[in-house]
Amino acid sequence: MTFLYTADLAATAVFYETILQLPLVLDQGVCRIYATGGDAYIGFCQTLSAEAGNTLSTQGIILTLVSPEVDAWYTYLLAHHVPIEKPPTHNPRFHIYQLFTRDPNGYLIEIQTFLDPQWPKPVIRNR
Predict the structure, then answer these.
(1) 3-state class of 13 per DSSP?
(2) Domains and CATH numbers, the chain
(3) Which residues in 28-51 are b (16+ Cβ under 10 Å) and which e?
């Protein structure tokens, strides 16, 4: 599970629940946790006020959602007036097809699909 901060939990909830349609699995009032696939979750927590010296930094953070439907996501996001940072593009270096947008907090979101049929490889867990 990954937690990120937000200065506007309501706008974040609209984006992740209505636009990206991630299932809300837990609403803790000041934090909302979403399922992103398998055993993966992302949570957003309301920051304390700026008066307390807390600042929100989105620098260097990329939230990647893996989907075989990158082009469909592009069309869908445009229809919902979500600004696109980079339209769907083949990335030969990483052998992926990807697009970039931002959420209401300024976090960079990548939606990508793996073009190598051997990836992602299953993880074997020792029990």
Answers:
(1) helix
(2) 1-49 (3.30.720.120), 58-121 (3.30.720.110)
(3) eeeebbbebeeeebbbbbbbeeee
Torsion from C-alpha of 29, 43, 66, 12, nearest 10 degrees:
50
Express each pLDDT in 59-73 by its tens digit.
778 898 989 999 999
Distance CA 51, CA 61 (A): 24
pLDDT tens track for 77-118: 999 999 999 999 999 888 889 999 999 999 999 999 988 766
- Taking alpha carbons only, the member of 8, 67, 61 closest to residue 32 is 8
